[in-house]
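ok so dumb question maybe but i'm new to this and my supervisor (M.) told me to 'just get the structure for Diguanylate cyclase (GGDEF) domain-containing protein' and walked off. so i did the thing. is this what she meant?? sequence i used:
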Amino acid sequence: MINSLKTIAFFGCALTSRYRSGLCKCFNKAAKKINANIVYFNSLGKIGEKTLEFSEGEYDLIDYIDLEQFDGIIYDGEGYNVEGAEEKIIKKLRTAKCPVISISTYVDGFYNIEFEDASGMRRLVEHFLDVHKHTKIGFMTGYLSHPDAQLRLKVFREVMKERGLPEDGVGIFEGDFWFHKGEEAADFFLSRPERPQSIVCSNDYMAISLSTALKKRGIRIPEDISVSGYDGSLEGKQFVPHITTATREREDIAEKTMSILAQLMDNGTFSGDNIVSPRILLSQSCGCEKIIYKEEIHTIDEINNNIRYFDNCVNDAQAAILKLNKVEKLDELEHSFRECATNFGDYSAFFLFTQTDTKGRLSCTSEYSVPSDKFVPLIWIDKENEYLRTDKPMRSANMVPQVKSEVPHFYYIMCIYCSERMFGYTLIEMEDDDIFTDFYNIFLLNLSVTIERLWKNDNINKLYEKQKGLYEKQKQISIHDALTGMFNRRGFNDASEYAINNLERKSIVCTMVLDMDGLKHINDVYGHNEGDAAIKAAADIITQCCTSNEIAGRAGGDEFYIYASDYSQEKLDKFNFDLTRLCNEYNASQGKPYKLELSHGAYLIEADKNTRIEDLLKISDARMYKQKMSKPGRQKR
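this is what came out, is it supposed to look like this??
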């Protein structure tokens, strides 16, 4: 619960686009009149033509939005441009227990705002017929699979037929609701048997594109051919000549929607109509207003100022990319946001909540597994100290932190995600009634990429540590004897060669070769399991004797090697004494039917790093063999 006021959710896409310019501002002003909060769930939608797999992840957040927290819902479905997105959101909104109003497309089962587009188009066509006395009128429709294009063409034909004129006028050209068909349309209309006196276009963008192409061909607008558009876009107002158009006024849509929603939230029903009528804006492209070029200078100056501001914002966006690229830890994100978030409008609060799994682990870490409905704050910026700070996980039933003030607040929630995973969501409150600029979207994309990089770096680091651990384990296995745990021959060779190669000067070193007496007898009489036990016991005794940094290893079978740097006769004597003592103690305590005995040969010599250990071991081996052969009742090796 944000505060005690009613809270309305608004679901839309590309709310910062030129077409929807000012829409949020109008709804926020209307919400103040009914004393309500609005939480906008804004989507970026399709970004370019080659990033569809990236766009799909944006709608994962829908699954975690608990609609119980809202008293009413507004749905603006017209802007969704990712396949399946509109259907997914409508399916979600059908589960809502509060009233849902669709403001741009008809949705069965919702309350719907209806637009008299038919009356707007009719009045434009009749304006050319009645005021300008034009009878040769062409029509540029949008792509005919779109319902708006179908309706506007239908009305054009009806009016022309009612006036006793050819219902297709001087010709109908199928456009694209965008800027790409102007050249082709100009050639089409100029090649007709009768040149049109005016051309009615299904929207402003096509009217601008057509007018531009006509002017390139020497056609004066409106002196030679008049042109009209539809939708009342900002571009149409800035274009010279200004486009005559019909518009769905955003103020009218917002006022009507909020009026109906207020009644539904309070009473469950509403009285009055749900119709928004278009306004006709008669301007220069039809000839109702003259082009005053001195006044256009102000518009040009304003556009130039916007271009300069845009350039500065681009520089700030580039700087933000560089700053975010330096972020190495999640807790550095807040500092980067405070430093870089300067080019999309003034905000009073910003929060980044990351999703956790069922064990509380963050979605941007490698351990993350099964998603939960809980989110924890990674960034908490509250400039006015308005919000009750919490570091505890927030459930999706309360996606906005509790605020102290009892006045309407307006929030914009957007998903933070990459093509592989949703990380969480951001929430921002602006200082005035309008929404942020497109540069906020750019910043969030950069923020998403940064979090994705940290997540994948974490994966790489964890994988590296795991592989390193496995490597070390395999390495230890490869250089150790499985039976005794001592170095095997390879391990002994590596360790002893490393030790002798690191001798800084000549020093006394020692090599020893030890061999068990009578192992073959033990194996033959008592079995190989007992033989293995004897080998392990001998290895344990040898290891206990190594108290002066000796390197010991099992060379194979019943033979053991020892190497020691910086050795002395005293150390060797102690080794021999301990060896005899420990063998005697073992034989006395274990009660074996055989005695554990070892023959050994040692070689002390001054050596340097160029000395070959294998040469020293040969001498030690010969001495060991000599000792073994000198023992009374000796066993064969």
